[in-house]
Amino acid sequence: MSIEINNESGIEVDESALQRLAAYELDFLRVHPDAELAILLVDEAAMEQLHVQWMDEPGPTDVLSFPMDELRPGNEDEITPPGLLGDIVLCPQVAIEQAKSAGHSVLDELLLLTAHGLLHLLGFDHTEPEDEKEMFALQRDILVGFTLAERRR
C-alpha cells in the first residue's frame, strides 16, 4: 500500500500515526494493497484557497478529499481493484481549534479527520441523514479499532 504524506503546514504532526491509521482503515475496508493514497497537510491560507476553489465556500476548512479512481470498499468476498484513491488535504491549524472545542488532543482530531477524509475518497458522504448515520458509525468503528490496535503495538 502506498501512503504518501507531505506536511507543508509548518505544524509538527505525528505523520507515522496518520500513516498507520490510513493503512489500518484501508485494510479494514478491504482496499487492494496496491492502492495509492496521498495525505497533504497545509496551512490555513492554502486550505482556504482550496476550499474556495473546489467548494465555493469562504475560509479554511478542516479536511478536503479529492477522489481519483472512484474506488469503493471491498466486501468479505473480494477486495477493491488496485488504483489511485486520491488525496486527503488536512489543515492542522483548524484541527487545533476543533480539538480544543472537542476536548481531545490535536492528534485525535487529525486521526478523525484522516478517517473521515478517507471514507469520502471511498464514496461515503453525509449529505442525507441515513448516509450520515452510516458514515459516522463506520468512522467510529474504524477509530475504535485503530485505537485498540495501537494499544497492542
Note the topology.
Elements: E1 2-7, H1 15-28, E2 36-41, H2 44-55, E3 63-67, E4 84-90, H3 92-102, H4 106-121, H5 129-152
Parallel strand pairs: 1-2, 2-4
Antiparallel strand pairs: 3-4
Q: Characteristics of this structure?
A:
4-stranded mixed β-sheet, Collagenase (Catalytic Domain), alpha/beta, 16% strand, 153 residues
Describe the structure.
InterPro entries: MetalPrtase_cat_dom_sf_prd (IPR023091), YbeY (IPR002036), YbeY_CS (IPR020549). Its cofactor is Zn(2+). Belongs to the endoribonuclease YbeY family. The protein is α/β, with parallel strands linked by helices. The chain has a single domain (2-152), classed as Metalloproteases ("zincins"), catalytic domain (Collagenase (Catalytic Domain), 3-Layer(aba) Sandwich), CATH 3.40.390. 50% of the residues lie in helices and 16% in strands. The protein contains five helices and four strands; from the N terminus they run E-H-E-H-E-E-H-H-H. Strands 1-2-4-3 form a four-stranded mixed beta sheet, sandwiched between helices. Helix 1 links the parallel strand 1 (2-7) and strand 2 (36-41). Helix 4 (106-121) packs across helix 5 (129-152). The chain is globular. 31% of the residues are buried. The model has no long low-confidence stretch (mean pLDDT 96).
